[in-house]
């Protein structure tokens, strides 16, 4: 009985850096386990190509014109649930990592990853694994566990307080934050009061400045 052929996963690369994008296409094209369908220079163009090509995996940068990688990831996960998104970027701060994972990304790699590691990550996310560069994984683990490292880095803030601070710094109103976490506005106000006291700040603008300094949001 003949062995069943294993399907080669199809990939779309979305990155606004032309040299990096073309170099990655060449590297992955040389791997017989990967089939690169096409590439795009921003999230909006990427969505258009996904609609036509339906790739198995999208390698997605974060900071791009027209539509960034976070919003593009959110759209892909919602509209094309069979397509996995693997973030591939230069940014390793907690804010981008958490936003990407909340948007539904299946993994988060840095651009200094070896080609073999990127190819292995593509294959891994197709099996349902969550793949992250080690330094990124350490940050996420610290935040999820509320470890001393995370609390020291964010001046004693709890994981939920950090999440609310990030959304507040992004301009969301208390009502929107409450809806996002399915909690009451009163609880949101309590969390905000708590982290105002911990940070020694008196208003939203000071809290936003703190969030920017800590890399929780983009300035």
Task: Kindly describe this structure.
The chain has 219 residues and is of the alpha/beta class. It has two domains: 131 residues, Rossmann fold; 68 residues, Winged helix-like DNA-binding domain superfamily/Winged helix DNA-binding domain (Arc Repressor Mutant, subunit A, Orthogonal Bundle). Helices cover 54% and strands 12% of the residues. It is built from eleven helices and six strands. A six-stranded parallel sheet has the order 2-1-3-4-5-6, sandwiched between helices. Strand 5, helix 5 and strand 6 form a beta-alpha-beta unit. It is elongated.
What features would you highlight for this structure?
11 helices; alpha/beta; Arc Repressor Mutant, subunit A; 2 domains; Rossmann fold; six-stranded parallel sheet; disordered N terminus; 219 residues
List the helices and strands and how they pair.
Blueprint: E1 10-14, H1 18-29, E2 35-40, H2 43-53, E3 57-60, H3 69-79, E4 84-89, H4 94-103, E5 107-110, H5 115-126, E6 131-132, H6 134-145, H7 148-153, H8 159-169, H9 174-181, H10 185-199, H11 204-213
Parallel strand pairs: 1-2, 1-3, 3-4, 4-5, 5-6
């Amino acid at each position: 009985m003949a062995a069943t052929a294993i399907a080669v996963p199809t990939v779309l690369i979305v990155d606004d850096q032309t040299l990096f994008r073309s170099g990655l296409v060449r590297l992955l094209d040389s791997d017989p386990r990967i089939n690169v369908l096409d590439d795009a220079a921003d999230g909006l163009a990427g969505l258009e190509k996904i609609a036509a090509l339906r790739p198995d995996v999208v390698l997605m940068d974060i900071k791009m014109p027209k539509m960034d990688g976070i919003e593009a990831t959110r759209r892909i996960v919602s509209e094309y649930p069979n397509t996995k998104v693997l973030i591939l970027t230069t940014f390793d701060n907690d804010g981008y990592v958490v936003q990407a994972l909340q948007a539904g990304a299946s993994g988060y790699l840095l651009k200094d990853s070896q080609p073999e590691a990127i190819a292995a990550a593509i294959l891994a996310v197709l099996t349902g694994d969550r793949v992250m560069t080690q330094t990124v994984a350490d940050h996420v683990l610290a935040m999820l566990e509320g470890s001393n490292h995370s609390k020291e880095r964010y001046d004693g803030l709890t994981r939920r307080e950090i999440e609310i601070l990030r959304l507040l710094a992004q301009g969301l109103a208390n009502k929107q934050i409450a809806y996002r976490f399915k909690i009451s506005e009163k609880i949101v106000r309590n969390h905000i009061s708590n982290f105002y006291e911990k940070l020694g700040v008196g208003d939203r603008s000071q809290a936003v400045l703190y969030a920017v300094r800590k890399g929780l949001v983009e300035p």
